[in-house]
Amino acid sequence: MIGKTKRGFGVLACGLALLVSASSVRAESLNPLTAVPGEAWASLTIRNLGDLDNKLIALGQRLNAPMPGSPLEMLKAQLQLTGLNTDGGAAIVMMPFVGAPDPQNSMAILIPCADYAAMTANMALEPAVDGVSRCMLMGTEESYIAQMGGYAVLGPKAAGVQSLLATKGKPTIGSTWTKHQLTRFAQDDATLHLNLKAIVASPMVQGMLPMLAASGSFNPADLNDLDSIAVSVRLGQEGLNVGFYSGSIEGSPSAKLLQTLKPTTDSLLTGLPGGNYLLAFGMRGSQQSFSKGAESYKAMLANPMLAMAIQADPAKMQEVAGL
Question: What 3-state class would DSSP assign to 290?
Fold first, then answer.
C-alpha cells in the first residue's frame, strides 16, 4: 500500500517474549498507540495480546499442527509473570539516542498491566529511584521497571525507562498518524514503525550521511523526503497478510511522485521477467515515477560492494534496473 503524504540484548530477548505473554486477568482494553511517544524513533507494537493468542491457536489447528496450549499461558508460566492484561496491546519502543549511541539506554518495553504489584512480585523489586525500580527478570536478568498508567515499562537500563516516562503528556503516535495508518493498525496484529523524519534529523545520523554518500549506494538526500515507513502483519482465515506503508513529507519530490501512482487490483505477474529471481515488486504509475525510480536503482546497483556482497553479476543487475 502507498500511504498518503503528510507533514547487546539479553533483556531484549526476554522483552520480545514478554510481548506475547499474558495472564488470565481481564482488564480494560489498552491501545498501545496512546502510550508510544510520537517522538520515538521506532516501535514494534502488538495490537491486542489476547486476540493474537487466539489467532495463533486457530492457525495451528488449520495447519493440522495444534498447539499443546495457549502460547500466552505457556510463556506466562516460563517467565513466572502474573498481573498482565490480555485485552491490551504491547510495544517495544526505541527512543532517540542521547549521547553515546547505546540502544540499551534508549529501549523500553510497554507491557499492559492489570495488577502491577502482582506482576513485580517475583522480580525482587528494589525501592524506586526517580520512579524507576531495579528488578531481576526471571531471577537472572538485571532490568528496570516503572508503572505508567495501565502499562509497566521495562528496560535493560534505567535511562531507557526514564526516557519513556518523560514523554508522559506529550503527543503519541496515535495522535500523529494519518487516518490510513490508524485504520491499518486497527486491522493488523503487529506493526513495525520507523519514524524516519526524526531519525534523519538527528545530529548523529546527519554526521553519517556524508559517509553514506561516499559509498555510492544511494543518494542520502532522498532520506530527507521520507516521513515514515511501517511494515505490518495480520493473521487471517486466508493466511498471513503483510502490508507496507510509506509516507513522504508533504510537498517533497518523493511525495509528488507517490501521488502519480495508481493502485490496482489487477495481477502484475504477466509483467515479471522470466527465469529465476529472488524478489519482484510491481506498481502502476507514471513514466516520471518509473524514470526516477530507475535512476535510483541504477545508482544503487552500480555499487561494486553491493554486487560483491550478494555475489551478483553487475551487468545483470543493470539489466534488471532497466526493466
Answer: helix
* CB neighbour class for 51 (10 Å; exposed up to 12, middle 13-18, buried from 19): middle
Of 195 and 9, the one with more pLDDT? 195
* pLDDT one-digit tens code per residue, 84-124: 898 999 999 999 987 667 888 999 999 999 999 999 998 99
In whole angstroms, give the CA distance from residue 266 to residue 4.
21
Alpha helix ranges (H) inside 194-264: 196-201, 203-215, 253-258
Task: Please report, as a single letter, which amino acid is at residue 121.
Answer: A
Assess contact for 108 and 155: CB atoms under 8 A.
yes
Residue 292 — very low, low, confident or very high, per pLDDT cuts 50/70/90? confident
Question: For residues 219 and 210, what is the distance between their CA atoms, to the nearest angstrom?
Answer: 10
pTM confidence score: 0.73
CB 114 within 8 A of CB 169: no
Please tell me whether residue 43 adopts helix, strand or coil conformation. strand
**Radius of gyration, alpha carbons of the chain:** 22
Instruction: Using DSSP bridges, classify how beta strands 239-248 and 226-236 pair: parallel, antiparallel or unpaired.
Output: antiparallel
- What span, in angstroms and rounded, lies between the C-alpha atoms of 157 and 163? 10
